[in-house]
Automatic annotation (TrEMBL):
Species of provenance: Solanum commersonii
A GO term from the CC aspect: chloroplast thylakoid membrane
Region (Disordered) location: 74-111
Transmembrane segments: 42-65
Bias kind Basic residues: ranges: 80-92
Protein name in the entry: Uncharacterized protein
Length: 111
């Protein structure tokens, strides 16, 4: 029985024209409109994700540059203070209000 199956199988395979079979497979996908819609949605998704990625990169770079500029400014200010020394007099003001944890603020009553 195996011999007859292999003979019939080889007979069927020899009669099959591969070009016609591939054309039938390709044309049997159905509507071209559906594939166009899916392709359009994929392109839109790709463009949207590309814009989102560029936006995230832009935000990261600007944040990095602002932090670097801020640190540079703080270093310059620290160098100016260190260079200038204590030229001005430091005035200590008395602070009104509670001086420790859990103390209530005593307000003056206007009578």
């Amino acid at each position: 029985m195996a011999a007859s199956t292999s003979i019939s199988l080889s007979f069927l395979l020899s009669e099959v024209n591969l070009d016609e079979t591939t054309d039938q497979i390709v044309s049997s996908t159905g509507g071209d409109g559906v594939s166009t819609v899916i392709q359009s949605l994929l392109v839109i998704a790709f463009v949207g994700l590309s814009i989102l990625t560029v936006g995230v990169i832009y935000i990261a770079v600007t944040d990095f540059l602002q932090k670097r500029e801020k640190e540079k400014f703080e270093k310059e200010e620290a160098a100016k203070k260190k260079k200038g020394g204590r030229k001005g007099k430091i005035v200590a003001r008395a602070r009104g209000g509670p001086r420790g944890f859990g103390q209530k603020v005593e307000e003056a009553e206007d009578d």
